[in-house]
Amino acid sequence: MQHLFLIDGSGFIFRAYHALPPLTRSDGTPTNAVSGFTSMLMKLVEDNTADHIAVIFDAGRRTFRNDLYPEYKAHRPPAPEDLIPQFPLIRQAVQALNVACVEMEGFEADDLIATYTRQAREKGMKVTIVSSDKDLMQLVTDGVELWDAMKNKAINRDGVIEKFGVPPEKVVDVQALAGDSADNVPGVPGIGIKTAAQLIEDYGDLDTLLARAGEIKQPKRRQTLLDNAEAARISRQLVTLRDDVPGVQPLETFAKALPEIDTLSAFLEEMEFRRLLVTVRGRHQAAVSEPMQATTALDAGKALTVGGSRSGQTVTATAPAATAYELVQDADSLRRWVAAAHSAGVVAIDTETTGLDPMTATLVGISLATAPGHACYIPLRHVSPQDQGDLLGGAPGAPTQIPVAEAAGLLRDLLTDRSVLKVGHNIKYDLHILAREGLTVTPLDDTMVMSYVLDGASHGHGMDELARLHFDHDTIKFEDVCGKGKTQITFDRVPLDKALAYAAEDADITLRLHHYLKARLFNERMLTVYETLDRPMVSLLFDMEEAGIRADAAALLALSEDFAARMTDLEAEIRTLAGEEFNVASPKQLGEILFDRMGLKGGKKSAKTGAWSTDAEVLETLAAEGHALPARVLDWRALQKLKSTYTDALIKQINPRTGRVHTSFAQTITTTGRLSSSDPNLQNIPIRTEEGRKIRRAFVAAPGHVLISADYSQVELRLVAHVADIAALKQAFHDGQDIHAITAAQVFGVPVDGMDPMLRRRAKAINFGIIYGISAFGLARQLGISNGEAKGFIDAYFARFPEIKAYMERTKAEARDNGYVLTPLGRKCFIPEIQGKNPAMRAFAERAAINAPIQGGAADIIKKAMAALPAALHEAGLSARMLLQVHDELVFEAPETEADATATVVKRVMEQAAILSVPLIAETGTATSWAEAH
């Protein structure tokens, strides 16, 4: 049976317009609706089984209905001003996508849809109307359904009855009685949908009801029907869709066709839709490149085409439609799924647990997916029927779950089989959970990491967000199955039918994402970045998190007590300086002391609260002016943060089972590819203050071991010299000279020998400041000099090193053209605000663009080193473990007897991690505590 898709264009337009924030082309033309419409239409066209498709628009506001009833839709407001110029552009989008576009003066889009629906059914075609408009529900019948794209849901006969209380053939009569305030259809006053439905059910149809209105027992209802009988008949004419519109475009012209790549690319370029353009070109490239693995959707499913065909193969990313999910409750069923995974060669895996902390959560069940739509859930630790009623299905007391040890035994070979790729979304979490059950997983792919490599920080990479973004699919949420707030239950108490739908969908979506994202990695030439930089990190970071780092609880407690005592002393000093008692922790009271009581200048009040601002910037400015009280408050706040964030918190975060702190590393958060650390964040412990160093002293090696810190020397400055191709700085690095002294000599024209330390300090401030786009104002504050003097230093720097100015301008232009910049190793760092209208945000984005290749390049280099180190240490017969990565520093734990050999291997691997036009230098230190090793 042929299948016709009819798309309600107006519904798509307004959905797109209201879904996206304002967006304009460089010439000022608004384009948010065009962008959203184009994206949605591309997805819809690709994500269906239709062989005929058309978008139907309203040609104008006046139709034959206005002749019947002049007030019809007369009170509707005009379209928003910024939407009006987008209407013709949206029609261009339809044409660029090679989709039929239909409209006709005098008739509404709904009439054209009704006409084409009738014609298609007469030809034996199936019809899907893409709309949730209630006016179109009268067309639903056998072979005709509505598709609500917002809810990803079909509306059939039962859906119409749910909406109107009557079947589709009686919808017109119900609407005639109830009217429609949105369209100004009068109806019968006082009668709503529910009452109208009951009346039509009782009397059969509108004509019979009006003829027998005098029999109605309720006096008010009887009279209003008698008084408004003509209004009801006119309303019926207004809501009845014409299915006989003359002279319409033939159905045969709606045959589905692929867009012409040149036409579509030209339109996307004209509209400045760069991300869509990259996607389209990538898909086209897939069609003409070496054929990739084909993915076949379920017969009842739907597929989103990623590439065209070549040698009869199609690359697809399947979007959820019909699914075949199975609850696996016996060993034979699990063996069947394991065999299917071995046969497929790729299996998606996900775990369900009792909590979010991978070090303490308990495994509840495992889901697997072997093909799009084919997934299962293996419950392992759901509560028994005796504990929770007949929750699990089957007879009370019946074995409804495979014993955990038996399930682990059945899965063990699959999870370590190197011929079967295991795919997860944030699979590092699952590795921790499975490790608790003695299970190892290799080899693996991570769809969260794939997404990050492709799109960076341009959007989030959670499964729910990616399913909406790529498949226009809303996944089942955790709260939907477990509740929220005080009534939320743990997953082991979820009934198995709900657990199956939720857990199996997770594995299913993960596998579909893998097919789609893997193709994009190839098409967009990001496969090398993924395979060499980010994919190896997943297993490596898992090992580091499992290892943890030993923390001395007694030392932390002593530090906490010391900080508390010093804070008490500072509070007394602060109150003495203030001349009165007040709460030092209260910003409001502090502001009143500084600006009302003491009358200090430079204060600013919040427009929202009217309170004085006492943030760090305000206090630092006052302290720099010589005021003692704000300086002491800054000291107090620094201690307070160290105590609450580190010493107090770290004591609680020592794992009682291991005696170690197990931080969590995230690799999909930052713009530049840097890793981040949380729970606890060990990357933010200050190292330039004595207090911060004291905290690091509390991190110690196990007995008989030492900690080894390996740190890149000035890696970001080396990258500046490399990417900007600054001959003088490159030579200085090759010669092993003091780079800040050389900079001072070049900029200020003084010899290196006998140089004033102040000049070197200024050169150092400029060297590091340039990387972050420092302004004259910022440099002046940092060095305590005038803005004019600071500007003179920066101008002199650019005059001596014009290559860096050229690099900065080149990089900003690259960001504006592409929306991203590249690191030396090829990572995309997205800069979303580079085209922003707000000058301050745009300037910030430009600074970020300049810095991203440098900071991102440093992150890539240390990842390369990390990926190479385990094998290098193993080959050298060394047993050291990598524990931490803190930006340019790596921390290892090694037996004392292997310390020197380990440091030698680590230094060699780090220095050979990348080939630059300047040498990479790594410095190592060894001690029993982290502070002494660094």
TrEMBL record:
Q: Which family does the entry's similarity section mention?
A: Belongs to the DNA polymerase type-A family.
What's one Pfam family the UniProt record gives for this protein? 5_3_exonuc
Reactions mediated catalytically: DNA(n) + a 2'-deoxyribonucleoside 5'-triphosphate = DNA(n+1) + diphosphate
Domain Exonuclease: from-to ranges? 345-523
**Quaternary data:** Single-chain monomer with multiple functions.
Source species: Novispirillum itersonii (Aquaspirillum itersonii)
Q: What is this protein called?
A: DNA polymerase I
Q: CDD domains, from UniProt?
A: DNA_pol_A_pol_I_C (cd08637), DNA_polA_I_Ecoli_like_exo (cd06139), H3TH_53EXO (cd09898), PIN_53EXO (cd09859)
Record keyword Nucleotide-binding present: no
Q: Sorted alphabetically, which keywords does the UniProt record give?
A: DNA damage, DNA repair, DNA replication, DNA-binding, DNA-directed DNA polymerase, Exonuclease, Hydrolase, Nuclease, Nucleotidyltransferase, Transferase
Every copy of the DNA-directed DNA polymerase family A palm domain together lies at: 692-898
